[in-house]
């Protein structure tokens, strides 16, 4: 596969992510400007998506919108049943108690992706779909510390190989030290200033915890995000809430598993 083909594939996903964020039809110029890509490139990709039935185009308004066929592609992945009920309820509860932004994250390749967000009332927010390097986030270190060492090292080395991080600024020895620090840690508290890569808010911090999930479900972590000095004063209360939420989710999952019909032998 050529580099141009890879770039085109990346841009297709970025186009879809644009619509996932805005949730409204958009003109070609709006999509291109949002992604900072050449209009000619975005135009060719949108036309291809229309031809394949993955994008609708309104001749009257000159606007594009993803077609229903897009939704069908992932309809067999039943993440929403758990994430949009018990987990979302816990996120609202956490936001109400902490009065800060709350995020839900999952590991994706070498990244930590924020798949859901509830904005707080203090103006420090993370946009859904935002990605951070697993090896450069407190939540990422929690996930990595629970992986096999070989798997965690493979993610670190791939991050270096892809040029997302340089070995001279974050060595393998430093990475292993972070893994050891987080191995027995259930809650992470990390200031943005501790990280090497820029974030949206250098004065912010995040308290995060990996939460229970059903068998076979993607890994999930919940985080509370806000100004570091505010979170410092709320740290103990948020940590207590995380433990309460984790225990409740664990109990709900156990109850659901216990009430499920027993599998029959073939």
UniProtKB/TrEMBL annotation:
Q: Name one Pfam family in it.
A: HTH_IclR
**Highest rank taxon of the organism:** Bacteria
Q: Which InterPro entries match?
A: GAF-like_dom_sf, HTH_MetabolicPath_Reg, Tscrpt_reg_IclR_N, WH-like_DNA-bd_sf, WH_DNA-bd_sf
- One example GO MF annotation: DNA binding
Coiled coil, from the record = none
Asked if the keyword Cell division belongs to this entry, the reply reads no
Keyword Cell wall biogenesis/degradation on this protein? no
Q: Where is the HTH iclR-type domain?
A: 6-68
Tell me which Gene Ontology terms the entry assigns under biological process: negative regulation of DNA-templated transcription
Keyword annotations: Transcription, Transcription regulation
Q: What is this protein called?
A: Putative transcriptional regulator
């Amino acid at each position: 596969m050529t580099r141009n083909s890879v770039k085109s594939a990346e841009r297709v996903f970025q186009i879809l992510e644009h619509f996932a964020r805005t949730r409204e039809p958009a003109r070609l110029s709006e999509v291109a400007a949002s992604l900072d890509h050449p209009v000619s490139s975005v135009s060719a990709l949108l036309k291809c998506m229309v031809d394949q039935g993955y994008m609708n185009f309104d001749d009257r308004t000159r606007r594009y919108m993803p077609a229903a066929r897009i939704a069908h592609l992932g309809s067999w992945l039943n993440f929403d049943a758990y994430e949009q009920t018990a987990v979302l309820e816990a996120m609202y509860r956490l936001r109400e108690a902490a009065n800060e932004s709350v995020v839900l994250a999952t590991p994706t390749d070498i990244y930590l992706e924020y798949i859901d967000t509830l904005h707080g009332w203090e103006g420090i927010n993370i946009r859904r779909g935002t990605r951070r390097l697993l090896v450069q986030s407190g939540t990422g270190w929690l996930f990595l510390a629970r992986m096999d060492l070989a798997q965690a090292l493979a993610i670190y080395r791939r991050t270096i190989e892809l040029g997302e991080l340089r070995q001279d600024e974050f060595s393998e020895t430093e990475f292993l030290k972070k893994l050891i620090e987080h191995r027995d840690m259930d809650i992470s508290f990390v200031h943005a200033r501790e990280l090497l890569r820029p974030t949206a808010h250098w004065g912010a911090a995040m308290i995060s915890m990996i939460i229970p999930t059903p068998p076979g479900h993607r890994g999930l972590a919940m985080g509370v995000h806000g100004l570091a000095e505010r979170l410092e004063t709320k740290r103990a209360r948020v940590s207590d809430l995380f433990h309460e939420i984790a225990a409740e989710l664990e109990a709900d999952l156990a109850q659901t598993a216990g009430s499920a019909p027993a599998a029959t032998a073939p």
